[in-house]
Model the fold of this input.
Amino acid sequence: MKKVLLTIFLILVVAIITLFIYPSPIDSVAWIPPTATQLSGPTAVNSLLATAELLARGEVYGPEDVAVDQQGRLYAGTQDGFIKRILSDGTVESWVNTGGRPLGLHFDHNANLIVCDAYKGLLSIIPAGEITVLTTSVNGVPFGFTDDVDIASDGKIYFTDASSKWNQGNYILDLLETRPYGQFLVYDPTDKTTTTLIDKMYFSNGVAVSQHEDFVLINETWRYRVIRYWLKGQKAGSHDIFIDNLPGFPDGISANRNGRFWLAIVTLRLPDVDRMHPRPWLKNLSAKLPDWLKPRPIDYGFILGLDEDGNIITSLHDPTGANLREITSVEEHDGYLYIGSLSNDRIGRFSLNE
Done:
């Protein structure tokens, strides 16, 4: 027994020494986050999402974003590289495999599915399933984490590269390093050019064009805020903060083009992460831990409804996360919200009549 205890002790000593001596994969900087707001008023806790219908349950894994085509068929990109297609009768088809990790999805005016693939770049898929790579870099620098997309009426494709350093499998390291590796871009299909509109963002994520296409919103996930980039008017070409100090990490955002934005909150604020942020040494240490000891999302379903002035006007919750959790996208279509998730095995459908 003594030999066993001694062996365990020596293993722990070696592990601790290794933890402190082994170099960290990140070089973190300090940040003092704003005090987390309470869930009250329009963000007060409810259980509306616990009543949402579940589609393709057990037949999809990680349907991060969803899109609906002109025939009412539902599409979702999953962890295995497939874009799944769900028919009106509930049948799930493995439509196309991108060979990467499809994230943001949006149909253009020619019925092509525009895809942000975390590893393959910005893609276009025709209805027959043929894939064309639109762009994989800007100014000679490859994208590291192509993330989300929206399309204006003139055909311009607005999208994000969440991190030029850390790929999709290492997004937690991007959070812990707390450096601005993200960017917001536009691809013009007329001349096939890619242009950076905003750089040095803290995990640039969801994208949504406004009703009159005078601005576009971009989620800055690690800063708990949404940025507004002006497309028209005296402020065209500049950006400001649309809404700040959100009660969680904003992921996907969509516009119904009728004055409403739907904002997916992938998880509530994580108190341990907020406490680490002012202490770079602690984040550097945390980055060396095995994945199961790194920060993890809270099992909670959360969606915010915003108006075009940045006001929160409604919220939908699943406090237990048993029905829907880790929500990463919300798309309004024909009176329903279709809800995607980073790691769940289902797609939610919530009737706005509720």
Notes: The mean pLDDT is 94.
